[in-house]
Write a structure and sequence with these properties.
- The protein is α+β, with helices and mostly antiparallel strands.
- It is 41% helix and 28% strand.
- The strands form six sheets. Strands 26-27-29-30-31-32-33-34 form an eight-stranded mixed beta barrel, surrounded by five helices. A seven-stranded antiparallel beta sheet has the order 1-5-6-7-2-3-4. Strands 13, 14, 15, 16, 17 and 18 form a six-stranded antiparallel beta sheet that branches.
- A hairpin with a 5-residue loop joins strand 6 and strand 7.
- Helix 15 runs antiparallel to helix 16, helix 21 runs parallel beside helix 23 and helix 23 runs parallel beside helix 25.
- The N and C termini lie far apart (151 Å).
């Protein structure tokens, strides 16, 4: 039963031409019976009285204990229902009739209005249409009685003929015509629908009873005729396609002896889509394949997939998806496939295995398709292996040192924090080591930075060989490295490891045929005693390293609480130094330089003094290195130059002033300009300014520093080498630059009278000075015996407490006057 065209009584006029006049009569009768103020008419006013012949078409329905039942049926309705019984539930009636009555009655009861429906019933292959009008009424015993009028329309039609006529598919029947030998020689069209006429592009009247051999349509082609002959008497049938160039028809054949039933459809658009698919699939430069959704077998692969993965096409088509997945991703791949809908896009990248065993990273995009009658997925693959490698390289670079490929500071601290987290659960110790290469700066200065970089790479290789397992070696910057020993280590184990590491790093390095030797100093901090955070441990290990460097290098030191106190003193001094410069707490004192032969003061060495407001006078040995480390020495040195030149202008014109220069001032590259500025500002003659340097100036960037020294000499300034004889290569410096003066260190003067080696050194330096026409000045002269020895050895100039300690600038005039007066008395 098919219900359709349901309308209320208000719209019934629209269909009046399609039904008997009984329906509108009953509707008017129902409407006239409705009394004012009531929704439903009484049963007796509608269903009794003048119904006449209509009573045979009425079935009365009532609700019995919630079940809709037949209370009365007319003779026509009994024929329709094929049942004469009364007082039976609707479920006992034929299903098509019961469905129509149930739906009509339910709508009428709910809306309290007549309800009209059309019911289509199939009887003996014929489709019969009935009008079903449900009229709701009130029962005198309470409740609602529904009278349903049923009547058949005149129109009837054959269901199969209707279906065949209405379908777009072609349906055609052929009768085989046999020749004298009994073989099927031709076929005659004995039946066809409009769909077949349209697909064969000829009117149905021309095709009916036409022989195929007469031609004029695609079925007449010899190849088609041969196929049709093959079906006659040889089985139930089959399927094939006809391609006429501009169109493609797909035929299904069913054989009944000499009769063939053909169904065919136009698959031209489908074929074009398949062709487009093949072009897109087969010629696509992106690897693509189709796999069976159930078995995961490869059904087809394109050339790009064959080339990219390295499997032959035959091998590919013998494989399943699982065979290109790494085993550790089987579960994840399978789970992803179970959740795939009609369209799929990678939510992550996957690994695939190529024929040579290598792995690639891919993104996959898929769509469900029907392929050769099987449910499958079309998949496109994007290889992102290079992208992932580039991302990995970037991530690696973010956590590793670009020169040595060791972990950098950030990665080191991260691993240190992880090791500390693990150690807390087991109450284990973690060792942190800070390593600094000894004499590395000499390598850079002597052979250049490229050589230094190669040395750092070799150091990194040795660290990788020694530091293994969960331990980490990192480069923090420059020639500073660090190590985490993550296992539970005792102080003795840490000490033994540090000693072995110093030996390994101190062994000679072969670079371009040169043998380069550096040492290593190590500072060690152990958790939890020396700190519980990565910051604390690194800071304390660094303090221990500073102590190791202070002890001359080549050793290791553990962190001690006293080091923290020293570090705090250092931080206090850095703070106080910056404040002292701003507050003008520095001053210059001057120590006389005495010409032995003339017995007069030939000049003064300016010495920096710091008068701390709380600590009093601070030794230069304490604050000068700190000033150099924090970069204050450049500004402080320029101030000393200006002050010394200005003070010297107050002295006699033949008295010079000597100023000590820090190697750091040479690195600033502003030294020459600072000297010019000090001379210009004070008006002092350049011949009266003497600049004292130490050999460390020659250890750093020799060529550049030599150029600066020559520029100073060109100004007329004298250059003096301080502490001569205490370095490694002092004699070579005399060849590099023509000094005006060399100063004999006080360590040789102190034991001049008691040690023959000191006397020999002083004699050699004095003789060297005479030969090279360089003035020699002896420092630290405190006794007349020392003065006599120096005079006897030909030394030109002396300074020391025998003559005077360093004095403030306001005392210099009195000192000059007193010395002149003493000299005149001696004369």
């Amino acid at each position: 039963m098919i219900m359709a065209n349901k309308k209320s009584a208000k719209t019934s006029a629209k269909f009046s031409s399609e039904m008997f006049a009984d329906v509108p009569v009953l509707q008017r009768k129902w409407q006239a019976a409705v009394r004012p103020g009531e929704k439903l008419p009484h049963y007796e006013d509608v269903m009794l009285g003048s119904l006449g012949r209509l009573a045979d078409h009425i079935v009365l329905l009532r609700n019995v204990d919630g079940v809709l039942s037949v209370s009365h049926t007319g003779r026509y309705v009994q024929t329709w229902l094929n049942d004469e019984r009364w007082d039976i539930p609707l479920s006992a009636l034929p299903p098509d009739c019961a469905t129509a009555l149930t739906e009509a009655a339910a709508n009428a009861r709910e809306n309290c209005r007549p309800y009209l429906a059309s019911a289509h019933c199939v009887r003996d292959g014929l489709v019969r249409t009935f009008d079903v009008l449900a009229l709701p009424t009130r029962s005198r015993w309470g409740g609602i009685l529904v009278g349903v009028y049923v009547n058949e329309r005149n129109a009837q039609y054959n269901l199969l003929d209707t279906i065949f006529s209405a379908t777009d598919e072609g349906v055609l029947s052929l009768a085989a015509i046999r020749d004298a030998r009994g073989e099927a020689a031709d076929f005659q069209i004995v039946h066809l629908n409009q769909g077949a006429a349209r697909l064969l592009m000829q009117p149905a009247t021309e095709l009916l009873w036409r022989r195929l051999s007469a031609g004029g349509n695609p079925l007449a082609a010899p190849a088609v005729m041969n196929c049709l002959r093959g079906f006659v008497g040889n089985g139930p049938g089959g399927q094939f396609e006809i391609d006429s160039g501009d169109r493609c028809l797909r035929l299904g054949v069913t054989a009944f002896g000499d009769m063939l039933s053909l169904t065919f459809s136009d698959v031209t658009a489908l074929k074009q889509r398949e062709l487009s698919f093949r072009l897109l699939f087969e010629n696509n430069p992106m690897p693509m394949w189709v796999f069976d959704a159930g078995t995961m077998e490869f059904l087809s692969v394109n050339d790009a997939a064959v080339q990219h993965y390295g499997y032959s096409r035959d091998r590919f088509l013998d494989m399943t998806l699982r065979q290109i997945w790494p085993e550790d991703e089987w579960g994840a791949h399978s789970a992803a496939l179970r959740e795939v809908g009609d369209v799929y896009q990678s939510s992550r990248d996957w690994r695939h295995i190529r024929a040579d065993g290598t792995e690639i990273h891919v993104l996959t995009f898929g769509r469900r398709v029907a392929f050769e009658g099987r449910d499958g997925y079309l998949v496109a693959v994007v290889d992102i292996t290079e992208r992932r490698a580039a991302e990995a390289r970037i991530a690696h670079m973010a956590h590793h040192d670009g020169l040595t490929n060791l972990p950098n500071r950030d990665f080191y601290q991260e691993r240190l924090r992880e090791a500390l987290e693990r150690s807390r659960s087991g109450n284990r110790r973690v060792a942190v080591m800070c390593i600094d290469l000894d004499l590395f700066k000499n390598v850079n200065d002597s052979f250049g930075h490229p050589m230094g970089d190669r040395l750092l790479k070799l150091v990194a290789e040795r660290l990788r060989e020694v530091v293994r397992d969960d331990n980490v070696a990192a480069r923090l910057g420059g020639d500073e490295f660090a190590i985490v020993l993550a296992a539970d280590v005792s102080p003795n184990e840490a000490s033994g490891f540090a000693e072995r590491l110093i030996d390994v790093l101190s062994a000679p390095y072969k670079i371009d045929g040169l043998e380069v030797v550096v040492g290593a100093s190590i500072g060690i901090a152990l958790s939890p005693g020396d700190g519980t955070t990565s910051e604390e441990l690194l800071r304390n290990a660094d303090m221990a390293l500073y102590r190791a460097k202070s002890d001359g290098g080549g050793v290791h030191h553990f962190f001690e609480a006293a080091m923290n106190e020293q570090a705090q003193k250092r931080r206090d001094m850095e703070r106080d130094l910056r404040a002292a410069f701003s507050n003008g707490e520095f001053e210059l004192h001057y120590q006389p330089l005495v010409d032995i032969a003339a017995d007069r003061i030939s000049g003064f060495e300016s010495l920096l003094r710091w008068q701390h407001p709380q600590k009093g006078m601070v030794s230069p040995a304490e604050f000068i290195p700190v000033a150099e480390d924090i970069g204050l020495i450049v500004a402080l040195g320029e101030w000393v130059l200006r002050e010394a030149c200005a003070e010297a202008m107050k002295w006699p014109a033949d008295v010079k002033v000597a100023v000590n220069l820090s190697p750091v001032q040479f690195r600033s590259r502003n030294l020459v300009q600072a000297v010019i500025s000090a001379l210009a500002h004070s008006g002092l003659s350049a011949r009266r300014l003497e600049l004292e340097i130490t050999e460390s100036v020659f250890l750093a960037e020799t060529e550049a520093n030599l150029a600066i020294l020559h520029q100073l000499r060109e100004l007329g300034v004298s250059i003096s080498m301080d502490d001569f004889g205490t370095g490694y290569s002092s004699l070579s410096y005399l060849r590099s630059f023509p000094f005006d003066k060399i100063k004999i260190d006080r360590s040789f003067v102190k034991d001049l009278a008691r040690r023959s080696d000191c006397l020999a050194i002083v004699r050699a330096i004095s003789g060297l000075g005479r030969s090279l026409k360089i003035t020699t000045t002896a420092e630290g002269v405190e006794t007349t015996d020392q003065l006599d020895w120096l005079r006897a050895e030909g030394c030109n100039e002396v300074q020391g407490f025998l003559f005077s300690a360093a004095r403030p600038g306001h005392e210099i005039a009195a000192l000059l006057s007193g010395f002149a007066e003493r000299a005149s008395k001696a004369a």
